[in-house]
Amino acid sequence: MRTQVVIIGSGPSGLLLGQLLARAGIANVIVDHASKDHILGRVRAGVLEEGTVRLMDEAGSGARMHAEGIAHDGFSLAFDGRDHRIDLFGLTGGRRVMIYGQMELTRDLMDQRERAGAPSVYEAESVTPRDFEGDAPHVAYRKNGIAHRIDCDFIAGCDGFHGVSRRSVPQNAFRSFEKVYPFGWLGILADVPPVDDELVYANHPRGFALCSMRSHTRSRHYIQCPLGEKIGDWSDQRFWDELRRRLPAHHAERVVTGPSFEKSIAPLRSFVAEPMRFNRLFLAGDAAHIVPPTGAKGLNLAASDVHYLFEAFVEHYQDRSNAGIDAYSARALARVWKAVRFSWWMTTILHRFPETSEFDQKIQEAELAYLTHSSAAATALAENYVGLPF
Ligand code: RFL
Ligand code: PHB
């Protein structure tokens, strides 16, 4: 079999790239080792930047997102028993974010892909990108015991942090930069109304808490927890009690509890691999970088990578120019590092770090106070949160 671009990974980055390419008449095949149901069952991001929303529209997959997503003009920073609203809309000259779950976005892109008749292979085993250093790459995999190979012009590694694409590049061909945080996020999903109309990010002596949502009837909440915490030790009741303790009283009173139908712990990490291109293999999304979720940037960075990569492929096929391909890694990384910085900073000001010195604690308090007293500081936060330009 032969195609123009093989995409490894059917997460948001692979699906978005596949849909954009298909609409531009560039043939592509998506290969994923997981099943469709497994991919659709992963609960993750919930906040979309305007650039991500625009790309969903360009991909022709934005209709349900516009109908069911919720536009947010601000969020709350809670600390010291009070909260302070960050007026995203006012501080950024009219920009906002969209609340729409990654599960829904993934489903929309998959449905659209099926309707367009573009090929996806799920449950592929031993997926391997090969010969990308030369001019004739291919992707090999096995399915139901039979070996397959897809020859192509380019391979897009959209297979997440644990994927095979980055692992297939020789160790000495890239550099990686990493920071592992000494805590994780315990998250639950429950069909109860959100605590407030907007998201609440809380810094509390017991640890960080975030009250988010998926709709007016479905809440997504997180609390900071120590590494090594066991999910089995967290009954729903224990989670709700701990969440309430970390919120200012007026929010705590409004917490509606109910049974959770998803509960998981995610470790927090910053990671960047440089470069993001290895001749005919390109990395995009979590395959190339990871950010802690505090800034709501992971999925949005995956989307901006896809934007640059899609433009590069269009230039190659339609304009017969490799300028975009040659510039891809540097363009993507310039934006990635700014989001890595913002995510690290949000994590640093909002979490309680074990063994923090009194000095560091005072600096954290001063950071939060500065945000509430200076519109310059709040504007810097807001412009990063709504998303830097592509
Ligand atoms: P994904 O979603 O991990 O998809 C990768 C796909 O590749 C497949 N795959 C393989 N296929 C073949 N062979 C292999 N060897 C393979 N290995 C893996 C997998 O099956 C999968 O289908 O990567 P992608 O597409 O780059 O998307 C990245 C986003 O999923 C991620 O950045 C976000 O979820 C991060 N994130 C958030 N991002 C935001 O922008 N806003 C948020 O509000 C937000 N909240 C979050 C988050 C991530 C979280 N966790 C669990 C880490 C909240 C949490 C709790
Ligand atoms: C979410 O709703 O899952 C969510 C929202 C904001 C974040 C991280 C996750 O910063």
TrEMBL record:
One of its GO terms (biological process) is benzoate catabolic process. Residues 2-343 form the FAD-binding domain. The keyword RNA-binding does not apply. InterPro entries: FAD-bd, FAD/NAD-bd_sf, HB_mOase, RIFMO-like. It comes from the Bacteria. One of its GO terms (molecular function) is 4-hydroxybenzoate 3-monooxygenase activity. It comes from Sinorhizobium medicae (strain WSM419). Keywords: FAD, Flavoprotein, Monooxygenase, Oxidoreductase, Plasmid. It is an enzyme of class 1 (oxidoreductase). The keyword Oxidoreductase applies. This is 4-hydroxybenzoate 3-monooxygenase. It holds the Pfam family FAD_binding_3. Its EC number is 1.14.13.2. Coiled coil: none annotated.
